[in-house]
Amino acid sequence: MPAWSIVLLVILAVLLILFAVLMIYGRKLQKKQEASQADIRAGAQTFSILVIDKKRMKLKEAGFPKIVLDQTPKYLRGAKVPVVKAKIGPKVANLMCDEKIFDLIPVKKEVKAVMNGIYILDVKGIRSGLDSRPVKKGFVARLKEKAAKSLTDNKNNDKKSKK
Q1: CA 109 – CA 53 distance, rounded (Å)
Q2: What does the DSSP assignment read for 114-148?
């Protein structure tokens, strides 16, 4: 057997072993994440809140209590998180929001929020339903839409010029 084929087989074996280890580690992390989500959902309460403002900002700049920053790993303190400034009863508070529902939260409206501590898990409209999440189109879909629009515009211009 040539030397290059032996090297190739060894590299392939190492990659397969690495892939298997990553699969096992990924399953463990997934189970841990599911357990923590179940704990968060178990302690959740529903509040009526008035959303004042919402934006994505760094954890350090968000104005969260010191204990939140202390419990956050150092590499995540500079990461941008969805922050909602809301009035809960007479008190104004900065709340962290789940990334999935951040786009659903209306600004300057009252909503019912399912919360655990300062973390918003879900929102529901009080007086009216919330707007559905806007569908983000990909680059190719936007190009196709522009092309179709230009074709229809060209056809309309051709018909006008023939008249």
Answers
A1: 10
A2: EEETTEEEEEEESSSPPPPPPPPPPHHHHHHHHHH
Pairing of strands 80-88, 110-116: unpaired
Q: How many Cα atoms sit within 13 Å of 72 on the Cβ side?
A: 18
pLDDT 10s digits, 88-138: 989 999 999 988 889 889 889 899 999 998 899 989 887 766 665 556 678
Encoded tokens for 53 = 């403002």
| Tokens 């929001």 belong to residue | 97
Q: Is the pLDDT of residue 16 over 80?
A: yes
* 44 vs 26: CA distance, rounded Å: 27
Residue 139, by phi and psi: left (phi above 0), alpha (psi -120 to 50) or beta? alpha
Q: Which tokens hold the place of 34?
A: 């599911």
What pLDDT digit, counting tens, does each position of 26-41 carry? 999 999 999 988 998 8
In terms of pTM, does the model score above 0.85? no
pLDDT score, position 64 = 87
User: Which residues, 6+ apart, have CB-to-CB distance to 102 below 8 Å?
Assistant: 54, 56, 82, 84
